[in-house]
Amino acid sequence: MKLRQCSRAAMALIGWSLALSVWAAGDKPLRVIVPGPPGGTIDIAARVVGQQISADTGRPVIIENRPGATGSIGLNALLKADPDGNTIALGPNNMLVEAPQIMKVPYDPLKDVVSIARVALTSYALVTAANYPSKDFQGLVAHLKTRKDKSSFASYGTGTVSQYSGLIFSNQTDLGMQHVGYLGSPAALQDVIGGQVDIMFDGMVTSLPLIKSGMLRAYAVAGKNRSRYLPDVPTMTELGYPEIQFQGQVCFYGSSKLPADVMARLQAVIKEAASAPAVRQKLIDVGLEPDVSVDTQALLTENKSLFQRNAAIVRKFDIRSN
């Protein structure tokens, strides 16, 4: 038994070594398209994992920022490149399961794009300005009821989880809240802090620093589990709102035309790099939850489920692009 186990371990090590040697033998750098601006959370994640891939394989990794159109510009650039594994993308899965619900994209997000590997998860928090009169979730709901049809919620964009959460919350509590959409979290959070908007469901990455600095108050998180960053803050499910359960994924993507052997090599090097302790810590430092998966079929199944759920939300609330 021990001999067989040792043999399996040796074969796995040999396979990994071969994957690295074949990967490093390429005469082209690995191009990672980031559908967002330099300096953003996804950009930081791409550079952190990319540097580790380069260190592991000896192959240069180039980060190329292609922001705009909720990720579709970056994904379109990915799909126009040769599907040889030399060009991949890193971004949030909302590019596949949210944006196509309200805007026309030049590709099928569930057929033309394949999830190579997930490296992290993101969660969302229900926040107000720190000086808002309510101290806890029950008090928040009670206060908003006194302002029925007069209160508002911000979101970082139309057709996003930020808007979905606010709409469901307002609907289930019968608050008649007005949606105020912004182009991104910073402007929205600025107005929440300034009192122009009552509440917001925002990504942990952007809201956490403001919570820690005392500028925002967190009442709940919308993830499946409590956040490591806010362990004392309950989930919306715990508070009786299981429909407000959203968790984003940060994944490497490629063309569905990637050959199987190329896909396997990519998954091997990404998994190794993203699992490095230093990389995991850097992802935690920017508010992400490290979570590595190279189960492409499971990731596709989850995205299909999220796509259908989001489509139902868009229909129910008649969400349309601005």
Description:
With 322 residues, this protein is an alpha/beta fold. The protein is 45% helix and 20% strand. The protein is globular.
Which class of secondary structure composition applies to the elements?
A: alpha/beta
Q: Can you write the helix and strand succession as a string? A: HEHEHEHHEEHEHEHEHEEHHEH
Categorize the overall geometry: globular
Query: Helical stretch count?
Result: 12
Note the beta-strand portion: 15-25%
For the sheet with most strands, the description reads: 6 strands, mixed
Strand order of the largest sheet: 2-1-3-10-4-11
| Nearest-integer average pLDDT | 91
Radius of gyration: 21 Å
Low-confidence stretches: 1-25
Report the strand count.
Answer: 11
Write out key terms for the chains shown.
322 residues, alpha/beta, 6-stranded mixed sheet, 5-stranded mixed sheet, 12 helices
Q: Which helices and strands appear, and what pairs or packs with what?
A:
Layout (H helix, E strand, L loop, with lengths): L1 H23 L5 E5 L6 H17 L3 E5 L6 H9 L6 E6 L1 H4 L1 H4 L10 E10 L1 E6 L7 H9 L6 E4 L5 H13 L4 E4 L3 H10 L4 E5 H9 L3 E6 L26 E8 L4 H15 L2 H9 L3 E5 L2 H22 L5
Parallel strand pairs: 1-2, 1-3, 6-7, 6-8
Antiparallel strand pairs: 3-10, 4-10, 4-11, 5-8, 5-9
Outline of the structure:
Helices cover 45% and strands 20% of the residues.
